[in-house]
Amino acid sequence: MRVVVPFDAATPKTRLEGTLTAPERATLARAMLADVVEAVREAGGHPEILSTASVPDAPAPLTQDDRTLTEAVNAVLAEASDPVAIVMADLGLATPASITRLFETAGDVVLAPGRGGGTNAIVVRDTDFRVDYHGISIRDHRRIAAEIGATMAEVDSARLSTDVDEPADLPDLLLRGEGRAQAWLAERFRLAVTDGRVAVRRRQEPALDS
Amino acid sequence: MRVVVPFDAATPKTRLEGTLTAPERATLARAMLADVVEAVREAGGHPEILSTASVPDAPAPLTQDDRTLTEAVNAVLAEASDPVAIVMADLGLATPASITRLFETAGDVVLAPGRGGGTNAIVVRDTDFRVDYHGISIRDHRRIAAEIGATMAEVDSARLSTDVDEPADLPDLLLRGEGRAQAWLAERFRLAVTDGRVAVRRRQEPALDS
């Protein structure tokens, strides 16, 4: 299956700015992109990166498109005659097995909901389907699929539901990631529990808690 | 399979106190308990509630135990000779299908990781296994399983990874829940997007945003 991996190369992972420096955020975003591309390939997909800016040494063929995510993806869908999957580049827990489950789920439109109303992956087998990533996109994607009369299914995967976007996502990347991004983070950060909440903390910081 | 559902009847869902009143928190917790018990039954399990306090009209046989969660669950495990599952009562997205996947996953110890380092469900098929819910429990449970030489597997389910615990979990309950808890919440709250983040807001509040 053809798999489009949208990637924000211009301002990656700004919500992590309280935890990671700008170069670190770029490195982590690139590591997750490489992990997702590899998981897609191992699941038998053909990844292509759809990026807002150029990416040196990109791990897959890259198309640059500086339009919004929704516009850029819909331009791909408008020209596609075969099934296309769209898999976000920040799924730091994605594995070949979870991507395989996505590909193997039957339905004209198969959605992998993200935490908090997003849509982390979609398989599009109906050429009338279009995306709308603005706002509560999972709700919009369900509605769009219903409007065009497409059969719809959702994949129940914690790995695909976790887009690494905020500091609260980093413990899950440390604990459950299996690729480059996890290794990169684990070299620099450790888990810490404060007031019953788990967070990541830089390794060189003094251990005031557990 | 015998399924123990631990339930905190004394001080349910205190982290939701900024969003829900105390009686509302108790009602939501009870609704999720009923949903989990029903999903367990529909998946072929035999639920029994392990509660810190009495629960009127409990939806399954109830044992009261005011020790810590770890102590109470380990007391059950110490006396069990057959497989036992432990499924948390606040899995507001749990469905018969996701619970069935848990039951059907092979392994002496099968873990369903919770977001942020918790362990939301466990199937214990090795009588030597004991739980430790304090701190980063998924890490401890992996270690304990390894120490006793048990085969281990993890279930990749967003539904089982979501314990409804904090305000940030409520949008997912609204968008993906399928039981009483979702219906109760949807009557009182709607989704709202502020600065690109999705949250729930009381229906009677003026709609200042989308």
Strand content of chain A: 15-25%
- The SS-based structural class of chain A is alpha/beta
Low-pLDDT runs of chain A? none
SSE string of chain A: EHEEHEHEEHEHHHEE
Tell me the layout of helices and strands.
The structure is a homodimer of 210-residue chains.
Chain A: E1 2-7, H1 22-42, E2 46-51, E3 62-64, H2 69-79, E4 84-87, H3 96-104, E5 109-113, E6 119-124, H4 137-147, E7 152-154, H5 158-161, H6 170-176, H7 180-188, E8 189-194, E9 197-202
Parallel strand pairs in A: 1-2, 1-4, 2-3, 5-7
Antiparallel strand pairs in A: 4-6, 5-6, 8-9
Textual characterization of the structure:
The structure is a homodimer of 210-residue chains. By secondary structure, the first copy, chain A, is of the alpha/beta class. Helix content of chain A is 34%, strand content 21%. Chain A is built from seven helices and nine strands; from the N terminus they run βαββαβαββαβαααββ. In chain A, helix 1 packs antiparallel against helix 7. Chain A is globular. Chains A and B meet through helix 3, helix 5 and helix 6 of A and helix 3, helix 5 and helix 6 of B.
Provide a concise account of the structure shown:
The model of chain A has no long low-confidence stretch (mean pLDDT 95). Chain A has helices spanning 22-42, 69-79, 96-104, 137-147, 158-161, 170-176, 180-188, and strands at 2-7, 46-51, 62-64, 84-87, 109-113, 119-124, 152-154, 189-194, 197-202. With 210 residues, the first copy, chain A, is of the alpha/beta class.
Considering the chains and any ligands shown, give keywords for the structure.
210 residues; 21% strand; seven-stranded mixed sheet; homodimer; two-stranded antiparallel ribbon; 9 strands
